[in-house]
Amino acid sequence: VRNAFRRAGFLPTSSNNFNVLWGKPLKIAEYKELCEYQKVNHFPGTYLLGRKDNLARVCNKFRRVFGSDSFQYLPKTFVLPGERTELLQDYEEWKGKLKKNDCDISYIVKPPAGCRGIGIRLISDPNTQIKEKAVCVVSRYISDPFLINETKFDLRIYVAITSFNPLRVYVHENGLARFCTVKYSRKTRKNRFRHLTNYSLNKQNPNFVKNTNASVDDEGHKWGLKAVWKWMRERQMDVSTVMGKIDDLILKTLLSIEVQINTNMQLAVPCRNNCFELFGFDVMLDSNLHPWLIEVNTALSLASDSPLDKSIKNQLVTEVLNMV
Ligand SMILES: Nc1ncnc2c1ncn2[C@@H]1O[C@H](COP(=O)(O)OP(=O)(O)O)[C@@H](O)[C@H]1O
Ligand SMILES: [Mg+2]
C-alpha cells in the first residue's frame, strides 16, 4: 500500500489534513470531521459484511424478503446459540442425502468474527458436536468442491466500491486462487490442510510450494485468478457464465447492506464521495461450477510474500487509488 501511494506521488502525513486515509474504519465523530476533498478507505457500517454472524444475518434477511431462489450462493448458515433449533431441523432434512453421498462432514463451525481458519471445526453430527450454548456460525459444508489437480481451492475476488449512492462497483480482473496442500476427500474430516484453503494455514505445511516468478501464475499452491480461468477454458468450461454468477453474488451481497450504509452516510459523512472501500470476496466453486460465497473480508491482507502476490496486489492498489 505504501509503495502504491508513493508511486502515485502521495507523501505520508500525520496531520488531519490528509487527502487519502488508508487504515481502520473511523469513528462516527471522525467521519463527521471530513472535508469535501478527503477520502477514507471505509464506508461506515461495512462490518455488517466483514463479520460472519452479521453477513449471515443480513443475507438471511434479504433471502426472506426476496425469496431463496435468487440467493443460492450462500451455503445455509445458522447463527448460534439463537438458531440451534433451526440448525437441528436442517440436519434432519439433510442427513439422508449426506449418507447417500458417503460424506462424513455435514457442517463447518466457525467463530463469529474469526480469520485465518483459526477455531474452525468440521463436524458430522451437530446434535452431539456443538455444545448447547456455543457462540458460533454454522454453515452447510460444500462437500463437492471443484478441484484442480484433485485439490480444493478458493478464489479471492477483489472488489472496489467508490460510491454506495449511486452504487459503483468494480471487480478487479485479477485475483488469487488459494490451494489446499493435501488432496481432497469428503470421506474424512481429518487434516485441515485438506479442507481449509487459507494461505496462512497451508503455508505451514512443509509441502507448500511457493510462487517464485510473477510471470508464472499457475505454479505451486497460490495461483493468479486469470490462471484458473485459463485452466478452465483450456478444458472447454464455460468461464463467462461462472464470472457472471460471481458478479451477481457480489452485487446482491452489497445490496443487502445498501440501506444501512446509505443511512449511516447521511447521518455521519459530509459528502457522498468521502468514502471508498476495497473488499475481498472469497468464493468457492462446486463440482457443477456453481460459485458459493464463503466470506467477505473488509480488513484485507495486502502484504505480499511472493512475486505473484506483489504484482497482483500492487496493480490492484494502484488502480484503486487512481479510481478514487
Ligand atoms: N461452507 C463451506 N464449505 C466448504 N468449505 C468451506 C466452507 N466455509 C469455509 N470453508 C473453507 O474454510 C476456509 C475458512 O473459512 P472462512 O469462512 O474463510 O474463515 P476464516 O475467516 O477463518 O478464513 C475457507 O477458506 C474454505 O476453504
Ligand atoms: Mg477466509
Automatic annotation (TrEMBL):
<keyword id="KW-0067">ATP-binding</keyword>
<dbReference type="GO" id="GO:0005524">
    <property type="term" value="F:ATP binding"/>
</dbReference>
<dbReference type="GO" id="GO:0036064">
    <property type="term" value="C:ciliary basal body"/>
</dbReference>
<dbReference type="GO" id="GO:0000226">
    <property type="term" value="P:microtubule cytoskeleton organization"/>
</dbReference>
<dbReference type="GO" id="GO:0070740">
    <property type="term" value="F:tubulin-glutamic acid ligase activity"/>
</dbReference>
<dbReference type="GO" id="GO:0015631">
    <property type="term" value="F:tubulin binding"/>
</dbReference>
<keyword id="KW-0436">Ligase</keyword>
<protein>
    <recommendedName>
        <fullName>Tubulin--tyrosine ligase-like protein 5</fullName>
    </recommendedName>
</protein>
<keyword id="KW-0547">Nucleotide-binding</keyword>
<dbReference type="Pfam" id="PF03133">
    <property type="entry name" value="TTL"/>
</dbReference>
<dbReference type="InterPro" id="IPR004344">
    <property type="entry name" value="TTL/TTLL_fam"/>
</dbReference>
